[in-house]
């Protein structure tokens, strides 16, 4: 190859390198991926200690006592109170169901007629007077009960119908089941006043109540209720 030919080849090669370098300046920069960071494990906040009460209610003959209301009022524990859904008092087969309805002070109650006949629900209680005419299938919602106490309810059409709404300022409560059992769980530890109530049993029928118990984390605190004497349900 002549010296002239070699010069030409060198010139072409240098020109090609120049063109490639110039074009690379306009190419998009290669994406840089960040290095993965190490996850930091956050230690969850410790849950406050919780306690529970297991209630066993029996009659004088040893048989279970159902539909007994039990409440737990904190004396030095911090009560955790949440908004309750409206309590429901049903009318079915000419009965109030449940016969004893507990509700928080300031809570609301829905009364609904599930019968095929009309009912005139009433109460002369000073805690919360009531006067409701409910056609078959009709309901009354948003009935607020701002004061603690017992509200006896009846029906003007069917005198044998009787029920009770127990309004309590205690944050924890419930009624015993057919086995006379009730469990109040997720209670903060501390001292509580335990009270009981039943429409068919006078206060003297619950000896030793209200009582004060100290709840600690661990096994359920067992509370036994022995009913000594009962009486017939009075009229409204």
Care to describe what's here?
There is one protein chain. Helix content is 9%, strand content 42%. It contains 1 helix and 16 strands. The protein has one helix at residues 3-24, and strands at residues 50-58, 69-74, 87-92, 95-97, 100-104, 107-113, 119-123, 130-134, 139-145, 149-155, 162-168, 172-175, 181-188, 190-197, 211-215, 221-226. The strands form 4 sheets. It has a 5-stranded mixed beta sheet, with no helix packed on it. Strands 12-2-14-15 form a 4-stranded antiparallel beta sheet, with no helix packed on it. A 4-stranded mixed beta sheet has the order 4-3-6-9, with no helix packed on it.
Summarize the amount of helix as a percent range: under 10%
Radius of gyration: 37 Å
Structural class: mainly beta
Please indicate the percent range of residues in DSSP E strands (runs of 2 or more): 35-45%
Q: How far do the termini sit from each other?
A: 128 Å
Subunit organisation of the chains: single chain
**Overall pLDDT level:** 82
Descriptors:
16 strands; 1 helix; five-stranded mixed sheet; 9% helix; four-stranded antiparallel sheet; mainly beta; 236 residues
SSE map:
Layout: H1 3-24, E1 50-58, E2 69-74, E3 87-92, E4 95-97, E5 100-104, E6 107-113, E7 119-123, E8 130-134, E9 139-145, E10 149-155, E11 162-168, E12 172-175, E13 181-188, E14 190-197, E15 211-215, E16 221-226
Parallel strand pairs: 1-16, 3-6, 5-11
Antiparallel strand pairs: 1-13, 2-12, 2-14, 3-4, 6-9, 7-8, 7-10, 10-11, 14-15
């Amino acid at each position: 190859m002549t010296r002239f030919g070699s010069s030409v080849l060198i010139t072409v090669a240098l020109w090609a390198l120049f063109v490639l370098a110039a074009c690379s300046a306009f190419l998009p920069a290669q994406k840089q991926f960040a290095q993965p960071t190490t996850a930091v494990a956050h230690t969850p906040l410790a849950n406050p200690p919780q306690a529970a009460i297991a209630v066993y209610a029996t009659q004088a003959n040893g048989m279970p006592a159902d539909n007994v209301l039990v409440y737990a009022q904190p004396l030095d524990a911090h009560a955790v109170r949440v908004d309750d859904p409206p309590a429901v008092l049903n009318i079915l087969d000419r009965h109030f169901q449940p016969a004893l309805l507990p509700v928080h002070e300031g809570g609301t109650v829905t009364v609904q007629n599930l019968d095929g006949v009309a009912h005139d629900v009433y109460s002369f209680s000073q805690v919360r007077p009531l006067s409701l005419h409910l056609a078959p299938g009709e309901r009354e919602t948003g009935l607020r009960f701002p004061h603690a106490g017992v509200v006896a309810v009846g029906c003007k059409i069917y005198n044998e119908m009787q029920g009770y709404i127990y309004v309590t300022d205690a944050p924890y409560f419930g009624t015993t089941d057919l086995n006379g059992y009730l469990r109040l769980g997720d209670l903060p530890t501390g001292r509580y006043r335990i009270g009981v109530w039943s429409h068919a049993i006078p206060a003297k029928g619950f000896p030793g109540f209200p009582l004060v118990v100290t709840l600690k984390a661990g096994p359920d605190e067992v509370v036994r209720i022995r009913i000594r004497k009962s009486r017939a349900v009075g009229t409204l």
